[in-house]
Amino acid sequence: MSLLPKALLLVAAFGLAACNNPDRFGAGGAGAGSAGGAGGMNGGFVDTTGLGDPNNPQSIAYFNQRVGDRVLFPVDQHTLTDQGRQVLSGQAQWLMTNASYAVIIEGHADEQGTREYNLSLGARRAAAVQNYLISQGVPAGRMRTVSYGKERPIEVCSTEACYSQNRRSVTVLSMGAGA
Amino acid sequence: MTVKRFLIPALAPVLAPVLAIALMALSGVQTPAQAQSGPLRIEITEGVIEPLPFAVPDFVDEGGAGEYARNIARVIASDLSGTGLFREIPREAHIARVSSFDNSIGYEDWKAINAQAVITGAVTVSGDRIVVKFRLFDVFSGQQLGEGLQFAGTTQTWRRMAHKVADAAYSRITGEGGYFDTRVVFVSESGPKNQRLKRLAVMDYDGANVQYLTDSSSIVLAPRFSPTGDRILYTSYATGFPRITLMDVGSLRTQTLAEQQGTMTFAPRFSPDGGRVVFSLERGGNSDLYMLTLGSGNLSQLTNAPSIETAPSFSPDGSQIVFESDRSGTQQLYIMPASGGEARRISGGQGRYSTPVWSPRGDMIAFTKQHQGRFHIGVMRTDGSEERLLTASFLDEGPTWAPNGRVIMFTRETSGAGGSAALYSVDISGRNLRQIPTDGAASDPAWSPLLP
């Protein structure tokens, strides 16, 4: 089971790698979540924000893996769990120290819902994360939110084991604060 | 269906007249029966219907028609059989041969094989021009039903002509408008569930003539036709954020609407006059309904609540809007004046109700319902009464009405890692559930009006 979190982190890294690329939602961007990992890189996105070394506390890789870039939500909820708040406090601290990164907060839903409602639900989740980060001192101007509804699951089964991973927010970093 | 498919060139207008199809009555041949007065009539009611047996012999080749004479007859037969209201008597069973369009048919020969309706026709092709004529006969009363009609256009439009013949026959026999000469805009999907690629496409209502409107470089969702079919509204992630987008179908030019930094816009739908767009705008996590006037760019807010307000749809007269909201705690359906204001809840059953769509006749609302882990497509009266669930599956959603208000198309998605979406249609009686043939997965259908 210890492989799963690593696989998720890898996925997160590829999702991140696309974030400065105008094609991030295209064939390349869709490589996020690819089990093949590196195979997804052939999709055409070439990123200019290096992930860095996860042992370097200033790197994006460190943020994604050590601080934690995602927060999970209960079914049909957008209120933060205690665990979620803990992760976000860490994110806020890190973001205050590393002020050069801009932030996009993605909100996602599982597939148990209609498309429009899930877009709204994902937006509620992203906003809950943004509001928490603001309350922890991260300037609102550094952050934007985007909802993917149920369009970008990372786990593909149709059981709670996957749904629980798909009901998430992901804090995506890129260079250039206030973008 | 074994009919040869004909692809319209990629940039040709989709619904704008590729070539005007001329429609004229054939005069001077036979005495037309009083339209729709004969015994040949299907009343579309809730009861079980025994499909009406009909025959469509190959059309007569009156010059250069070649395969068209047969293919047009096949499309007509497929249209009518596809409704579930008609049953074709196979050509092998036919006794009579129709060799001349101008003669009446030998009713006894058709009566002998129990064909109650017979459609005969003729095709002439000259260069890229095609002329299609047809007559409809009521076998048991021994009369022609309605006038003969003639359609003319380019050979490229041959399927449309077949659909028009089928629409006329359907209409004369049922007394309802047809829906075969229509297009459906939808989202064509490819790739595995966690790497889904989506692009806009249009096709004939029966899955033929697919034409792609966008590439798959960004997510596209829930396209909707304008009332005249010349424009499409949809939600696009082309900017990196969900934005309602207007596409001109002829030129494929797109325009982002109501763009405001820090907001998400989605779930757009045209007003019946095509001049306004009602949609959801999300700001700070809260989704409300807004109205954009296309000419002036004037934006007005219709709802103002901390709950989710989305999936709006106009009544056909433009005076009201039905939408979904979770203001009561779960998703339910509400109707309010098109200018905003007091909303009344119409859904009252158990479960969650979403994606309401007002029927073109104005009498019903189609919706998605979630209850006990299943999804349903259903219909109810506009006051919420007479709720009827038409389907049930792991995930059915997003109904769209055929222009005659008798058939609903929707998305059905299967479960699991290999799950994928497909388009289905069903009668508002709950009968005749069928999958629309598409190349690959497809979702979010929206039916066009009847083409001119």
Automatic annotation (TrEMBL), chain A:
It comes from the Bacteria. Residues 1-17 form the signal peptide. It is found in: Cell outer membrane. It is a lipid-anchor. Residues 60-177 form the OmpA-like domain. Keywords: Cell cycle, Cell division, Cell outer membrane, Lipoprotein, Membrane, Palmitate, Signal. GO terms for biological process: cell division. GO terms for cellular component: cell outer membrane. SUPFAM superfamilies: OmpA-like. Its main location: membrane. PANTHER family: LIPOPROTEIN YIAD-RELATED (PTHR30329:SF21), STATOR ELEMENT OF FLAGELLAR MOTOR COMPLEX (PTHR30329). The Tol-Pal system is composed of five core proteins: the inner membrane proteins TolA, TolQ and TolR, the periplasmic protein TolB and the outer membrane protein Pal. They form a network linking the inner and outer membranes and the peptidoglycan layer. NCBIfam families: Pal_lipo. Part of the Tol-Pal system, which plays a role in outer membrane invagination during cell division and is important for maintaining outer membrane integrity. Belongs to the Pal lipoprotein family. This is Peptidoglycan-associated lipoprotein. It comes from Pseudotabrizicola alkalilacus.
From TrEMBL, chain B:
Residues 1-35 form the signal peptide. One of its GO terms (biological process) is cell division. InterPro entries: 6-blade_b-propeller_TolB-like (IPR011042), Tol-Pal_TolB (IPR014167), TolB_N (IPR007195), WD40 (IPR011659). The keyword Signal applies. Transmembrane segments: none annotated. Its main location: periplasm. GO terms for cellular component: periplasmic space. Residues 40-145 form the TolB N-terminal domain. It holds the Pfam family TolB_N. It is found in: Periplasm. Keywords: Cell cycle, Cell division, Periplasm, Signal. The Tol-Pal system is composed of five core proteins: the inner membrane proteins TolA, TolQ and TolR, the periplasmic protein TolB and the outer membrane protein Pal. They form a network linking the inner and outer membranes and the peptidoglycan layer. Belongs to the TolB family. Part of the Tol-Pal system, which plays a role in outer membrane invagination during cell division and is important for maintaining outer membrane integrity. This is Tol-Pal system protein TolB. It comes from Pseudotabrizicola alkalilacus.
